[in-house]
Amino acid sequence: MEKKEVDVVIVGGGKACRELLALLEEYEPKHLHLVILGVADINPQAPGYLYAQKKGYCVSTDFRELFKKFPHIDLVIELTGSDEVLEKIFKTKPPKTKVIDHLGARLFWEIISILQEKNLYERRLQQLEGMKLYIDIIAQFAHEMRNPILVIGGLCKILSKLEKIDPKTKTYINAIIKEVNRLEKLMDRLTFISKPLQLNLKLVSLNQLVRKVVENFKRELPPNIKIKLDLEEDIPEIFLDEEFISQSLYELLQNAKDAMEKTGGEILVKTKLCYDEVAIVVKDEGPGMEKNILEKATMPFFTTKAQGTGFGLFFVQKVVKTHGGVLHILSEPGRGTTVVMELPVRMFYPIPPV
C-alpha cells in the first residue's frame, strides 16, 4: 500500500518542536509520509527553530510567511500552547489545511513514545534471552579452562626456577607465565559474569569514597584533562560495598579519560541526594556515542576501543543492580557522555527476606 504524503508546518519552535522533529526522524508512520515544510517561531534562537535550520528545513519568525510560501499545506501542528496563536492559525491558514493543536500533538507524541518503548523492551528481552544462554556457555567454558591453565602456569613456574636452563628457554617460559596470568584474570572475569555478586555491605560516607577515588585517579590523568568535584553536602552514610562501588567509579573515570584522550577537557564528578536515592554522576566532554553503540554499551565484551575488554560498563551495571540501583547512560554525538549510578539510601543494614 502506497503511503499518503502529508505536507506539514510546525508553529512553535521550542523544545517540544526539537524533540518532535527528532522523534519523526526515528519513527516512520506506516501509512503516512510526513514531509516537514517548515518551522515558525518568534524566537530564532529557540531550540526547535535552530534544529530545523540545521536540518535544512525552511524557518520563519512569522508562520503566515510559511502559509504564503507553501499554499498547499496539509497539516499545521501548533506547539506554542497559546490559544491566541491557535486562533490566528485558524484565521490565516489555507482553507483545506487541517490543524492539530498542542494537546493533540502531545497525545500523538505520547503514543509514538509508547510504541518506541514497547519496541525497545522487546529488543532488550530478546537480548536478555540470548545473553542468558551466552552466559551459561561462558560459565561452562571458564570452569573447563581454569584447571588446565592453573596446571600450565604452575609447571612453568617450577621450570623457571630450575638451575640447568638456558637464558633463551627461560625467556620463553617467563613469556608463557605472563600470558597464563593474563588468562587467569580473564577466567576471573568470565566467572564474575556468570555468578551473582556477594556484597560486603557496611556504612560508608559516599562523599569520602568519591573524593578518595578521584584523588587517586588524578595521578593517572594527562595534563590536558582536569577533574571537577561537586559533592552535595549532608549526604548520610549508607550501606554499600565500598570496594565494588569504588571500582565502578574508577571504571567510569577511566572511560571518561579514554574518551577525552585526544581532545582534552573536564571530567565532572557529582554526588546528589534525592529523597531515598543517592547518585554518583560522571560527565565527560568526549565525542559521545551513537545510538546503536549506546544500546550495546553495557553488554559483556562489547567494546569500541582497540585495547578494550568490553567489561567495564557491564561490571558497573552489575554492581549497581546488585545494590538495588539503576545505571543511566546519557550520550549524544558531539555532546559527551553522562553516566549516573543511582543507589538506594540504606542507613540500616538490609535484612534479607525470609
Please describe what this structure looks like.
It comes from Thermodesulfatator indicus (strain DSM 15286 / JCM 11887 / CIR29812). This is histidine kinase. GO terms for molecular function: ATP binding; phosphorelay sensor kinase activity. It holds the Pfam family HATPase_c. By secondary structure, the protein is of the alpha/beta class. It folds into 3 domains: 4-100, NAD(P)-binding Rossmann-like Domain (Rossmann fold); 127-194; 202-344, 2-Layer Sandwich (Heat Shock Protein 90), CATH 3.30.565.10. The protein contains 10 helices and 12 strands. The chain has helices at residues 15-26, 47-54, 63-69, 83-92, 102-160, 167-194, 206-218, 242-259, 291-296, 312-322; strands spanning 4-11, 32-40, 58-60, 75-78, 98-100, 202-204, 225-231, 238-240, 265-274, 277-283, 326-331, 337-344. Strands 3-2-1-4-5 form a 5-stranded parallel sheet. Strands 7-9-10-12-11 form a 5-stranded mixed sheet. A two-stranded antiparallel sheet has the order 6-8. The longest helix is centred in the middle third of the chain and has 59 residues, at 102-160. The termini are far apart. The mean pLDDT is 84.
